[in-house]
Amino acid sequence: GQQLNQSPQSMFIQEGEDVSMNCTSSSIFNTWLWYKQEPGEGPVLLIALYKAGELTSNGRLTAQFGITRKDSFLNISASIPSDVGIYFCAGQSSARQLTFGSGTQLTVLP
Amino acid sequence: GAVVSQHPSRVICKSGTSVKIECRSLDFQATTMFWYRQFPKKSLMLMATSNEGSKATYEQGVEKDKFLINHASLTLSTLTVTSAHPEDSSFYICSARDGFTGTGRDQPQHFGDGTRLSIL
């Protein structure tokens, strides 16, 4: 089946620093999505990417859909304490099912 | 917009009990809803795809008789964990996608807040 490799697994950064995480896949996806999950809650959609090469921003977040359609990255600029959580990438196939990455646990130190 | 409500948020019950979890799309119609299971510090694993008015499609290894799914309307899907046992304890999350808003792009999945199921 399809697998997504997400890295890094965890990050500890100082408030104000920039963050970068990425996902790679063994197969092509039509859509890449980035979600954030906080403890005891469901994932919240951050950014959706629909075209290879697309670069999209949402406030301090920027994500790109790789040209090969097998990868995506998410950048967070000037991190703040409320950025803490688990970030998941997800690839959507033509069947509209999502395959999730393993997640990146982000900790922001004051 | 795109709010998905999941209820209950937490269930604690005895082994052998059947538990029903509801997933509602509040401000859009969802022809398709999805049910996931998440173990601590792990990613979301798709259990089944719930299609309005038809049978759910289960992922390999998911027992359809154990996890009954009903999607009777465009805004409601239910997951019933039948005769639950301690190994069924987990965080169950539903998602829904708007199948009707025409933007020329696939609508992304929006998630409920999950249900923490604990079987004693």
> Which stretches of chain A of 5+ consecutive residues score pLDDT under 50?
none
The largest inter-chain interface, given as chain pair and residues per side, is: A-B, 22 and 23 residues
Distance between the termini of chain B: 37 Å
- Per DSSP, the total helix count of chain B is 0
Give the helix level of chain A as a range of percent. under 10%
Instruction: Return the structural class of chain A.
Output: mainly beta
What is the H/E string of chain A?
EEEEEEEEEEE
Radius of gyration of CA atoms of chain B, rounded to a whole number = 14 Å
Sequence of secondary-structure elements of chain B: EEEEEEEEEEE
Which structural category fits the helices and strands of chain B? mainly beta
The average pLDDT value of chain B, as a whole number, equals: 91
Q: Unreliable segments of chain B (pLDDT under 50, ≥5 consecutive)?
A: none
Oligomer: heterodimer
DSSP, total strands of chain B: 11
Report the sheet-strand fraction of chain A: over 45%
CA-based shape of chain A: globular
